Amino acid sequence: MADKNTNMFYLIFSFTIFGLAHFNLVNTLSANYYDQTCHNAESTITSVVKKAMLNDPTVPAALLRMHFHDCFIRGCDGSVLLNSTGKNKAEKDGPPNISLHAFYVIDNAKKAVEALCPKTVSCADILALAARDAVTLSGGPTWGVPKGRKDGRVSKATETRQLPAPTFNISQLQQSFAQRGLSMDDLVALSGGHTLGFAHCSSFQNRIHNFSSKQSVDPTLESSFAASLKSVCPAKNTAKNAGANLDATPTTFDNRYYKLLLQGKSIFSSDQSLINSAKTKALVSKFASSQQEFQKAFVKSMIKMSSISGGQEVRLDCRVVN
Predict the structure, then answer these.
(1) Is the pTM for the entire model greater than 0.85?
(2) Catalytic residue among 67, 69, 101, 200
């Protein structure tokens, strides 16, 4: 899941490495956290996200992916926003994160919020709220985002090695989520984030060229769909921005992803793995048949995932520690 505004499900591999074992799901966040200190924070952030979307339709997928990548390393602490320094290569410059973009949206939101309420709203909260807005403004559900996250002071590119590739199988995905206190239900619901965005050829090349010693193409791919992927991503592809949309409506938050998954038209191996287990396949079918059920589950899992704790301060500049 490592391409521009796409493969946000480079999920955490192990939280016991690199000192990440202190992470947990916290109950200290509150939907009313800024009511007394910055009651216009949310509407201000929404306005910034809306403006950015009008100029660039890839912004929602980028923000949602950015939030996932933040939460899966060191918790939802805004560490993905920090710039590298002379002594330290930060998360955003780790291989899976090179293609993250739209950081300027968070910068703009922070600047606008600082003008209203200096030194009050964390960058981690701004990113969580922007990700919610990205979903809502793309036709998806809205929800009250619990707030009160603090910003982290550590960001290491080496830790992005823990983000699993789109080639992960169901047991690897299950392990990744379990280590974050997230269930198989959360895995399937949050995978629905792939309803937004675009994937570069490199992230699904394994399915359409040299799949195995006996088969060039992944047999679980629907044949005409596989042919279309091969046409845009030939074996010796040199086009830098070649790739495919994650579903047929890449700027609309809907349940099309699940419908295509059941038709053998998923992009990533990790997506396909969701129908290799009876439990997860049943959920895929449920969400494919009911957008309402999908959205309800997605909201529940997003709140749970975005409540993984992390930081220590409220940054003044989202790219630099205080």
Answers:
(1) yes
(2) 69
